[in-house]
Amino acid sequence: MATNQARQTPAISPLTIEERTGSISTAEIISVLKGEITALHISQAFSTEIAEEITAKFFGSPGLRERKDGVPGQYVGASHYRKDAATYFAEAETARPHVDALFGNLVDPVRALFDALKRELHKQGIELRLARSEHGQANVCRALSWTGSGTFSLDPHDDVAQVLRAGNDYELSAVAHNTVAALNFYPSMSEEGGNLRLWSHKPTVDDRKSQGVETTGYPYSAVYLKDVPCRDIRLKAGDIALLDGGFVHGVTGQAGNGKRRVLLNSFFGFARPDLVLWWT
Ligand SMILES: O=C(O)CCC(=O)C(=O)O
Ligand SMILES: [Fe+2]
């Protein structure tokens, strides 16, 4: 029997969002990783100087590319989305000098967070490391600027489908059964819009099948999400957002005639009780 897409009713899961100003702590990161809270928004989490350096280096990067995988955007770095492990890790190796160059000679705040989390998890008997294969290893982050126009500059999606369907040649597939945490640093923000919108819904495999997004988790239609409550996280340059990527989320349309929205993104999660993997 063919499934009627509009008839599949999304189950509602409550959102727990914490928002504050200051420095992110490893305890907060671990609470998202363990699925205790849905999202964390830290305002003014890193300096304007670093934000401006990353933004300038991103737009001037010789490694800046247009996405060609059906998601409108520009990027520096590598995305595992819709790629086999050999292709992804080879791209990660090639892109590494460009990712490293985004920070100029300033200290990379994503790596600083990674190192702090690694130390804390180590104390708890848990290893944190970059995902790897015989073809290479993941980078600490990738940089992105979405170029979709209309209601969303990045359409509603979840980050789990791409992990679940990453394929057996990826060690990170195991993380899909736990929380896939998505970490975003925002070096630049459009004057209006560009909000991170979260819907009160964590799609199952059946939900994805009904929407024809089983392997990608992208994009969920307006009809499907129509009766699902949502909340917007309003972002500024210098903010960090950390979320459970299993919840449907997207980026609202952007306006204003100046600044482009840029983020640094990474994913991480438990592959085993004693191992957390990190990738992009
Ligand atoms: O740009 C954002 O705020 C969200 C990015 C995102 O959801 C993703 O890269 O999967
Ligand atoms: Fe996402």
Describe the structure.
The protein has helices at residues 26-33, 48-59, 85-101, 109-123, 161-164, 205-211, 222-225, and strands at 17-21, 39-43, 65-66, 73-76, 127-130, 132-133, 136-137, 142-146, 152-157, 181-188, 192-193, 196-199, 230-233, 239-244, 249-252, 254-255, 262-272, 275-279. By secondary structure, the protein is an alpha+beta fold. It has a single domain (2-279), classed as Sandwich (Jelly Rolls), CATH 2.60.120.620. The strands form four sheets. Strands 1, 2, 3, 4, 5, 8, 10, 14, 17 and 18 form a ten-stranded mixed β-sheet that branches. A hairpin with a 2-residue loop joins strand 6 and strand 7. It is globular. The termini are far apart. The relative contact order is 0.23. The mean pLDDT is 95. The structure holds 2-oxoglutaric acid and fe (ii) ion. Residues 154, 159, 182, 184, 196, 249, 251, 263, 265 line the site of 2-oxoglutaric acid. This is Fe2OG dioxygenase domain-containing protein. InterPro entries: WelO5-like. It comes from Mesorhizobium japonicum R7A.
Assembly form of the protein: single chain
CATH class: Mainly Beta
Instruction: Write down the overall mean pLDDT.
Output: 95
Report the span from N to C terminus. 37 Å
Helix content: 10-25%
The best one-word shape is globular
Just name the CATH architecture: Sandwich
CATH superfamily annotation: q2cbj1_9rhob like domain
Secondary-structure element sequence? Answer: EHEHEEHHEEEEEHEEEHHEEEEEE
Q: Structural class per helix/strand content?
A: alpha+beta
- How large is the radius of gyration? 18 Å
